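During the reporting period the student researcher (J.K.) took over the structure-prediction task from the postdoctoral fellow and processed the backlog of single-chain submissions. One of the processed entries is reproduced below for the supervisory committee.
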Amino acid sequence: MRRSATALRRHIRGRLFENGGLLPHPHATLAGPTYEQWLTATS
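J.K. obtained the following structure tokens:
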């Protein structure tokens, strides 16, 4: 059985959700410091 690309994406997203994976919105903006900022703040 061959799946369409859309059906395959839905299947993968469903499996990620079931297993606790993170699924950000395609247009999501990540917040927080950069790794370098975080590193200098914690040292």
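The committee noted the following: The mean pLDDT is 77.
J.K. will present the remaining backlog at the next meeting.
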